[in-house]
Amino acid sequence: MNDLMSLGIHRLWKDHFVRSLNPGSPSPTSLNHTRKPWTMLDIAGGTGDIAFRLLDHSTLVNEDHESKVIVSDINPTMVAEGKKRALETSYANSPRLEWLEANAEALPTSIQDNSIDLYTVTFGIRNFTHKHLALREAYRVLKPGGVFACLEFSHVDNRLFNAVYKRWSFSAIPIIGQIVAGDRDSYQYLVESIERFPRQEEWRDMIREARFLIPGMNEDGEGGWEDLMGGIAAIHKGVKPIE
Q1: pLDDT for 144-156, tens place per residue?
Q2: Helix, strand, coil: what percent of the chain each, to 5?
């Protein structure tokens, strides 16, 4: 599905997303910027796509062999798929990778308050029923100075491009889904869920209302996110204040 909606480049977006977070660098929650292992929580990450990238970047770019990722997904089938894919990596039996079946809107108490350096959610939060509850939980578990980071399909900002993209989304994608996967309804839901997701400004404001600081937002209240491919997707970040 992501291949169709991103015209095949969602993997490049994920790579860029992880590079922008630079996991394994001096901890964002360390007051003196010393190098300490990161504890990262990847929400709706059952396939492991982002978790493996986070660990690879930590290891290969920053020579950090201690930071770890907890992969959380509400769907046990996705968790099972992620564990299967992990067998093809060096992290399968490593303490650096944990798996958790959980609801992001009400995380278990095993994820303690102020325990996470980086919270990521990629192409998943638009499906959450109560997004404000997920943001509240993100704020709870992040350490002061910790980062909430979201990569999600969003809204195209060019009128002409938007008209073309919507025609592709609503007309072609469900038909392709029927032909390729025999599942028109799931692909129809996909495009409708993207259309319902808050626009960039509204989503930024929701993150801000959850008490996060917004990097990149100017004094006039403009900006605070990064559009990808004209807004087909966007990266939003929030930082939990250091009190």
Answers
A1: 999 999 999 999 9
A2: 40, 20, 35
